[in-house]
């Protein structure tokens, strides 16, 4: 019973680490682009909506763009599910009669505050949790568990905002 609080804390840290790895995977693999599409008059795929603060808006996709290719492949209209773009790393769009190549990348100026700063904050909170666990080995205080829960909650909330953006 003496080390029960520390075991609970370790389980919470491990679960939060798994969740953060999952969010980072989603962000890095561009599973969530943030653009809605529909078929145009000529059978073209047209961008109908771009979510604010999304990977699509950061990459320069605009409403009304005609999608020519995704990931250097011709578009198959059957691949687009629920009118959402998914798994896009690059795309060529037609805008005002000109073809533009747009790259979806996590590491640019606009994504710095959305992904990198929350990830750094989470890592700092993890270090704090490990120090608290080390100090709490002998004392076994409930307040240490509460502090770890607070740190993990704050850092996960911060990093989750980037995962949903």
TrEMBL record:
<keyword id="KW-1133">Transmembrane helix</keyword>
<dbReference type="InterPro" id="IPR001478">
    <property type="entry name" value="PDZ"/>
</dbReference>
<dbReference type="InterPro" id="IPR036034">
    <property type="entry name" value="PDZ_sf"/>
</dbReference>
<dbReference type="Pfam" id="PF00595">
    <property type="entry name" value="PDZ"/>
</dbReference>
<feature type="transmembrane region" description="Helical">
    <location>
        <begin position="140"/>
        <end position="161"/>
    </location>
</feature>
<keyword id="KW-0472">Membrane</keyword>
<protein>
    <submittedName>
        <fullName>Histidine kinase sensor protein</fullName>
    </submittedName>
</protein>
<keyword id="KW-0808">Transferase</keyword>
<keyword id="KW-0812">Transmembrane</keyword>
<feature type="domain" description="PDZ">
    <location>
        <begin position="20"/>
        <end position="75"/>
    </location>
</feature>
<dbReference type="GO" id="GO:0016301">
    <property type="term" value="F:kinase activity"/>
</dbReference>
<feature type="transmembrane region" description="Helical">
    <location>
        <begin position="112"/>
        <end position="133"/>
    </location>
</feature>
<feature type="transmembrane region" description="Helical">
    <location>
        <begin position="7"/>
        <end position="26"/>
    </location>
</feature>
<keyword id="KW-0418">Kinase</keyword>
């Amino acid at each position: 019973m003496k080390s029960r609080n520390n075991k609970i804390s370790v389980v919470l840290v491990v679960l939060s680490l798994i969740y953060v790895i999952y969010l980072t995977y989603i962000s890095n693999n561009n599973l969530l682009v943030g653009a809605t599409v529909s078929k145009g008059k000529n059978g073209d795929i047209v961008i109908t909506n771009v979510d604010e603060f999304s990977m699509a808006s950061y990459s320069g996709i605009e409403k009304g763009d005609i999608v020519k290719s995704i990931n250097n492949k011709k578009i198959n209209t059957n691949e687009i599910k629920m009118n959402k773009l998914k798994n896009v790393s690059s795309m060529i769009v037609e805008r005002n009669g000109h073809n533009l190549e747009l790259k979806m990348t996590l590491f640019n100026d606009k994504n710095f505050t959305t992904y990198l700063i929350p990830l750094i904050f989470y890592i700092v909170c993890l270090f704090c949790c490990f120090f608290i666990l080390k100090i709490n080995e002998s004392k076994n205080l409930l307040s240490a568990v509460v502090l770890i829960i607070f740190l993990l909650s704050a850092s996960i909330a911060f990093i989750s905002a980037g995962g949903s953006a």
